[in-house]
Amino acid sequence: MNDILPEDVVHWRYLESQLRTIITSYGYQEIRVPIVEQTALFSRSIGEVTDIVAKEMYTFTDRNEDSLSLRPEGTASCVRACLQHGLLRHNVQRLWYSGPMFRRERPQKGRYRQFHQFGVEAFAISGAEIDAELILMSARFWRALGLADKITLQLNSLGSLADRQRYREALVAYFQKYQADLDEDHRHRLQMNPLRLLDSKAPMMQELIAQAPKMLDYLDETSAQHFQKLCGYLDDAKIVYEVNPRLVRGLDYYCDTVFEWVSKELGAQGT
Q1: What's the average model confidence in pLDDT over 94-107?
Q2: Longest dimension (CA), the chain
Q3: 43: exposed, middle or buried (C-beta count within 10 Å: 0-12, 13-18, 19+)?
Q4: Sign (positive or negative) of CA dihedral 21, 18, 153, 235
Q5: Given the DSSP bridges, would you call strands 257-263 and 151-157 parallel, antiparallel or unpaired?
Q6: C-alpha to C-alpha distance for 222 and 224, rounded to whole angstroms
Q7: Running DSSP on this structure, what letter comes out for residue 246?
Q8: Is-contact 103 134, C-beta < 8 A?
Q9: Cα 83-86-91 angle, rounded to 5 deg
Q10: What is the percent of the chain where pLDDT is above 70?
């Protein structure tokens, strides 16, 4: 965890003002959620076997013997607040939040255990249009900050939950043939969260990953059309992108579109 000194706060304020100006122009409203939540909120929504819940959360027991955790991400808290206060009753909601999040990751360049996240959530809108809106909005951020020529958009689809289950089975069957070549960490991922194998940066995994089944081959017709529509919207908007079939998310609640903006100027933590 680190301090932000006065000479750096100037830059933070500029960044935050740019983000606020753009996000409000799209009709998103700010929501502020607690830094501490019930641990069960994250373990249920993110997934018991994800790295975040299994290894990275700051969790403690308070005087009432309740298990509490510092928030490791913003989506679960935002959904909880919307349900608790009835914001989703017959309403489309576009919300944004910013602030510190906490994960007890191994310290490395570009990663802190207290990090700052700016996030947006759109509820009750399910078409490819909202995916395009979020990507176009983030592209506008990069242009406003003078970073557009330094980053690349990568896209993939995880399909529906049923698509993911079929793909998961194919992935497990593929990697089990090479189980003797996997180290303990990768064998654990294979058993608990096989999609995370595709995330691996280990050199010995790269050839295996390159030959692994591709998620896009397991999409049903609805998910495939969703992804094709999104790509069409981005083409119309002249947004350059790469389809990365290895781009996944380890969190349980993800489906359909996943995307990342990636820079080659930041080293290993370039997303």
Answers
A1: 90
A2: 56
A3: buried
A4: positive
A5: antiparallel
A6: 6
A7: T
A8: no
A9: 105
A10: 94
**Which H/E stretch holds residue 115?**
strand 114-123
- Higher pLDDT, residue 248 or 38: 38
DSSP SS3 for 33: coil
What does residue 259 show for φ and ψ, rounded to 5 degrees? -150, 155
> Taking the alpha carbons of 145, 250, 87, 117 in that order, is the dihedral positive or negative?
negative
The pLDDT of residue 121? 95
pTM for this one? 0.87
* Inter-residue contact 109 to 268 (CB < 8 Å): yes
- Tokens for 268, please give them: 């290993």
pLDDT band at 112 (very low <50, low <70, confident <90, very high): confident
| Tokens read off for 203 | 């050199």
Cα separation of 4 and 188, whole Å?
Answer: 37
Angle at 36 between CA 35 and CA 41, to 5 degrees: 115
Residue 220 in this model has a pLDDT that exceeds 60:
yes
Closest among 66, 76, 257 to 163, alpha carbons compared: 257
Cα dihedral angle (34, 40, 41, 47), rounded to 10 degrees? 130
For the record, the structure tokens of 270 come out as 């370039």
DSSP state of 234: H
Distance CA 223, CA 217 (A): 11
Q: Where are the beta strands (DSSP E) in 39-113?
A: 59-61, 67-70, 93-102
Helix (H) / strand (E) containing 130: helix 128-144
Task: For residues 233 and 85, give the distance between their C-alpha atoms in angstroms, rounded to a whole number.
Answer: 34
